[in-house]
Amino acid sequence: MTPISESEATVNVADLAVTRGDGIFESIGVIDGRFIELPRHLRRLAHSAELLELPEPDLEAFEAAARLALDAHAPAAELLVKLFHSRGVERSTGGVAGPTGWVQVLTGADHAEARATGIRVVTLDRGYRHDIAQTAPWLLQGAKTLSYALNKAALREAARRDADDVIFVSTDDVVLEGPTANVLVRHGDLFRTPRTDLGILAGTTQAAAFEALESFGFDTAEAVLTPADLVSADAIWLCSSGRLLAPVRELDGRSVPVDAELTMRLLATAFGLHPGGPDA
Ligand code: PLP
User: Fold this and answer.
1) Pairwise CA distance, residues 280 & 274, whole Å
2) Which of 82, 124, 128, 201 to mutate to test the pocket of ligand 1 (most atoms within 8 A of CB)?
3) Which end of the chain is more exposed for a tag (fewer CB within 10 A), N or C?
4) Residue 280: what pLDDT?
5) What is the pLDDT of residue 108?
6) Model confidence pLDDT, tens digit, residues 153-183
7) Strand partners, 104
8) According to the model, what pLDDT value does residue 249 have?
9) 86: CA distance to ligand 1 center in Å?
10) What is the pLDDT of residue 156?
11) What number of other Cβ atoms are within 10 A of residue 86's Cβ?
């Protein structure tokens, strides 16, 4: 494996990732050269592959490629490493030659302000019931597929509504997840996140945040939450690999309290990120 630059890298035009979005991916945060939650990301890649009935990804090869690509990239305080696993190339003569896999290193956006002061979020209808994963598993909810056009469309809708991000709600009023993030909700000393059997992605960032919260002595739980739980929350965060933890400062136009101190403590404990320090 030899790392190559973006301008040299190519994917076959007949690859099913390109023509059908028929593949999966992972985005892994890297802080000061350290992968964040790499084993959880690799496990989730394998789980997504199972849900899509893709050939099993070679996790050792992915990890080796990720490390090689990272070493070849100019160092930065924060980077994102993406792993792609596609069903492969559709042959004109029939059948598929595959799977195809590749790794990409990106300089992440600057999330310092979102982490420190918070983001504005709108709730949007996801158009599904909360039990979609059980009633229609072929919709692949809970897999991190390459079909992210809907997720991107939701983020554009948020921008139209003068917001930064989205929390999806099911048609039967259950809080789900964001287009690229999990939801973390605080009531007193209890921190809850929507259950992963609600057709949402099992978040690596949320899992690491729960471990840190438990080490601080707080209670954590996976739960069925409603929009009323968001309205009554003492604090809400969106958790995702690039931005890590973004406190929600406004939900559907209403102010939500932001606990900047706890956010910084969590970022330091769960991810070794010290905003305001040399990484800021
Ligand atoms: N939910 C969805 C739909 C996502 O795409 C993502 C990440 O991109 C997440 C949740 C958060 O997962 P993680 O914290 O592992 O990045």
Assistant:
1) 7
2) 201
3) N
4) 38
5) 78
6) 999 999 999 999 999 999 999 999 999 999 9
7) 82
8) 98
9) 19
10) 98
11) 26
Contact 168, 122 (CB under 8 A): no
Q: Which amino acid is at 167?
A: I
Q: What torsion do the CA atoms of 42, 46, 51, 55 make, to the nearest 10 degrees?
A: 140
AA letter at 269: T
Q: Quick one: tokens of 93? A: 């003569």
Q: Which of 132, 144, 238 to mutate to test the pocket of ligand 1 (most atoms within 8 A of CB)?
A: 144
Question: Is 162 buried (19+), middle (13-18) or exposed (0-12) by CB count in 10 A?
Answer: exposed
Compute the C-alpha angle 47/136/199, nearest 5°.
50
pLDDT tens, position by position, 234-246 = 999 999 999 999 9
| Beta carbons of 233 and 106 less than 8 angstroms apart | no
Tokens (6 digits) for 126: 């996801």
∠114-102-137 over CA atoms, to 5°? 75
36: left (phi over 0), alpha (psi -120 to 50) or beta: beta
Q: Report whether pLDDT(198) > 80.
A: yes
**Which residues surround ligand 1 with Cβ inside 6 Å?**
27, 177, 180-182, 201, 203-206, 239-241
DSSP 26-54: EEEEEETTEESSHHHHHHHHHHHHHHTTP
Pick the atom of ligand 1 nearest to 37's CA: 15
Query: Which residue's CA is the closest to the ligand 1 atom numbered 6?
Result: 180
In this prediction, residues 88-96 reach a mean pLDDT of 96
Question: In the sheet that 23-31 helps form, which strands lie side by side, from edge to edge?
Answer: 34-35, 23-31, 78-86, 100-107
| pLDDT above 70 coverage of the chain, percent | 98
116: three-class secondary structure by DSSP: helix
